Amino acid sequence: MQKTIMEMKMQVENEKEIGSVFEAGNLSVKTMKVKKSDGCRPPAEVLVVAPEAQGRYPLVLFCHGYCTQTSWYSQLLCHISSHGYILVAPKLYQWLLICKNDEIKTAGNVANWVARGGLETCLPENVKPDLSKTAVMGHSRGGRTAFGLALGHRHLAFKALIGLDPVEGPAPAAWVEPRILSYVPRSFNAGMPVAVVGGGLGNRSKGVFVPPLAPDGCSHAEFFNESRPPCCYFVAKDYGHCDVLDEERAGLGGLVCRSGKGPKEKMRRGVGGVVVAFLRAYLGGECGILEGVVAAPALAPVTMDPVIYVKE
User: Fold this and answer.
1) Of 64, 82, 139, 165, which residue is the catalytic one?
2) Residue 177: CATH number of its domain
3) Domain range for residue 76?
4) Which of 69, 102, 196, 252 has the most CB atoms around it within 10 Å of its CB?
5) Residue 305 is among the residues annotated as catalytic for this protein
6) Are the C-beta atoms of residues 163 and 143 closer than 8 Å to each other?
């Protein structure tokens, strides 16, 4: 039976609404680097990305990957923020130095600082965080930090958890203690919805002497397998582990890991759109966009395969 003109128009409008999460939002955003010595005194240096328009916005704590800087994710964070979210990204490591295994503690201290109201003095005038709607997100080793924080830290009462190509190094490497993965399906007791977004090329080595940065057995598939419903899983099939970084940094990451041949800008929009759709569902109660992306992943600017959404 052929669709009526009205039905076709409605379909087009629905697709536009779903696809809008993969484009920049309507809000202008401001990026601020706040040091420990500044007036609001965060426990670690933080990068804050927030809408400039007056309002109260959900908050996302973002944990960056090892050997990266918070500013290397600015294009992805700005995409998310432009849809109406405040992003707080603490500096977790000293540049190119293997530090003590305290990144979960550092991220937790920043979460406590936010919960105590420290962030509000750093934000644009009349911009406030809605601490009843908070999520924690991380990339690479920062992804395992986000999982560790969600599994053991409750001061900020996170409502959602997002891992962007999360990685836990192969055992028995001491630098990844405490262990997050148990290899028991649905064993995580995070008590909140989970989204895992992986890169399809992350398990491929760059060359004989450069191992993959997201090897099989300790990366996105395992984190999803251990997540309890509701949980969703998206894999950007043709892109690599570092392709979510800012344009110039993604090129640098391509020196040490397999990179996708397509424009990295599409990868950032694809990941950013999935994150926005997930946040709308579980911080805003608007599930239609996420369900639409799951039902029609071709609306994303990159190929998402597989796409899995387990509600119960």
Assistant:
1) 165
2) 3.40.50.1820
3) 26-310
4) 196
5) no
6) yes
Q: Where are the beta strands (DSSP E) in 41-150?
A: 46-51, 55-63, 86-90, 127-139
Tell me whether residue 6 is in a domain. no
Cα–Cα distance for residue pair 170/176, rounded to 1 Å: 8
- Please tell me the distance from the alpha carbon of residue 251 to that of residue 4, in angstroms, as a whole number: 47
pLDDT tens-digit map of 150-197: 998 656 889 999 999 999 975 444 456 678 999 999 999 899 999 999
Question: Residue 88 domain-assigned?
Answer: yes
Would residue 165 show up in a list of annotated catalytic residues for this protein? Answer: yes
> What is the pLDDT, as a whole number, of residue 155?
67
- Give a yes or no: residue 21 inside a domain: no
Known catalytic membership, residue 140: yes
The tokens describing 47, both together, are 């990068």
Q: Rounded CA gap, 166 and 221, in Å?
A: 9
Among residues 64, 79, 83, 241, the one annotated as catalytic is 241
Rounded CA Rg of the chain? 19
Which residues have a Cβ under 8 Å from the Cβ of 263 and sit 6 or more positions away? none
More confident residue, 11 or 127: 127
Number of domains present in the structure of the chain: 1
The model's pTM: 0.93
Q: What distance in Å separates the CA atoms of residue 98 and residue 175, rounded to the nearest whole number?
A: 8
Q: Which of 74, 140, 219, 227 is catalytic?
A: 140
Per the prediction, the chain carries an average pLDDT of 89
